[in-house]
Please model this.
Amino acid sequence: MSPRTRRLIPWISTIGSIIVLVIIWKLVIAVFDVSPFVLPQPEKVVGGVRDLVQENGFWTDVRITLTETLVGFGIAIVLGIGLGTLLGRVQWLEQAMRPVIVASQVVPKVALIPLFIIWFGFGITSKIIIVAMIAFFPMLLNTILGVRSVDEGQKDVMKSLNASRWQTFRRLEYPSTLPYILAGMEVAIIFAVIGAIVGEYLGGDQGLGYQIVTSLNNLEAERLFAVIFCLTLFGFILYLAVVALKRFLIPWHASAIDNTTAST
Amino acid sequence: MDRQETADVRHRSSAASAGVLEDDPAGAPNGTVASTPEADSVVRSDVSGALPEGEAEIELRGVSKLFTSRHRETLALTDINLGIRKEEFVTLVGQSGCGKTTMLRILAGLIKPTSGEVRIKDRSLWRGNTRDESALRQLGLVFQDANLFPWYTVEDNIGLPLALRKVDKKQRRQRAHELGELVGLTGFEKALPRELSGGMRQRVAIARALSYDPEILLMDEPFGALDAMTRDKMNMELQRIAQTTKATVVLVTHSIAEAVFLADRVVLLSARPGRLRSITEIPAKRPRQLEVTAEPGFQDRVVNLRHQLIEDEERVARHGGVSE
Model:
């Protein structure tokens, strides 16, 4: 198979799977005679998306959800990398913190959302905090792992060359930790989107997550599907942005080489 | 100790002048036996590799290393006296656990000896807990793994030591190119390590070690991970590189044939605790071709060293080491 054909495969399979999905969708409606309130026709959903996008305030909702996601994600990155680097380096501190980390990981964080809403209000702040909290753990754990995984042999190279602390960080520790951090970011961005949406529909009056609630309350299945579609696209674009960042920052790394993103 | 082929290094010059391998390595003069029965508390080396004052470029003086972990203490090396001349090629062999890698890492300044002194070009390598910068600059190090930095191109990997020493980019490129030529990497300057074979990576590692023109090259089983054919080829290359750069080379290997082929002197270490067992002169002239390995003098030395190694292994198996 030529490389060019190979590059096309993800696109072909993507289009193919969409077609298959639509066919099954229509079949289910036809065979089981599903009510349009439960499952609207695919073309109605397309129309729903068109209407949704033209709605007053749709783009404001997008902007709010985006702000919550990105600000929370940013906080998670800074705290996760900072604390992760510290814990990765200082063994006893990590041991001391381990019970706390495990406990806070095990707590179903979604269950804490109502609490945050009580504490920080219905506005954007509570969602940012929720997003930061949910996205924080993959960042923290991956950074710890990355800091610990710096190769001993490569460290010996730097040591034998009498490299300074800063040189060792810049030329060895930083680049070898980056793949782990970026892998953490790939997970964290998805978590961040989930955090923002769940936060919005559990307590809020703005954002795409809130629009799910209003659609549901009005029994507007078409619009509900349209919001879900937009949210999927929203998450997908953010995820692609992280993947692009990865390819930019670590083009040398195996994870940045193969052409996997077009198919996801 | 019936086997006493251990050559005193002081007689080396006469042996080396023969130019080719004599047939009988046992004809080499008896070595100075350093072990003194009265010093029971300390296990002594069987031979002293010390050179006369001022002859050695690298010197280990009474070096020992005790590793202390929570459960046990391990005497990795004891009573090592060894001098290595300028431009000499010395190989270290011994069964696994004999401390040959430890010895190399001590030479490289990666491990501080528990007692004794390491001298590089008449400067002590350690001053308190810091290493002497100018002594370190004389050392180029090659490990069993190439330990390249995957985020750098071949060129940048070779130039890494220079970058750490603030050499500007243009000069680094220039030097990387020269060294690329020397080690056979021309055309691969912009490649990433993952695009190279194991042998090629090891070439990069050698070039990197040579980048700042060290006078001493320390190699820890540099070709241990390579297949036999690549290994033979790399040994030939290494010989050529050592001759071109006039570097003093200390190489650790577990292959006796490789050790004899490459070395001016083969240093055999005994295990538990690691100490000098014998030093064998290999007086064949250079450059050596692979054919030299078929010569009886070469074969005899290999067999002889193997015997010593086996004896040592059996002794360890019987007594579990002397010091314990």
Residues 1-20, 22-41 of chain B have pLDDT under 50 and may be disordered. The first strand of chain B starts at residue 58 and ends at 68. The two ends of chain B are 21 Å apart (CA to CA). The domain at 9-35+43-131+266-319 of chain B is CATH 3.40.50 (Rossmann fold).
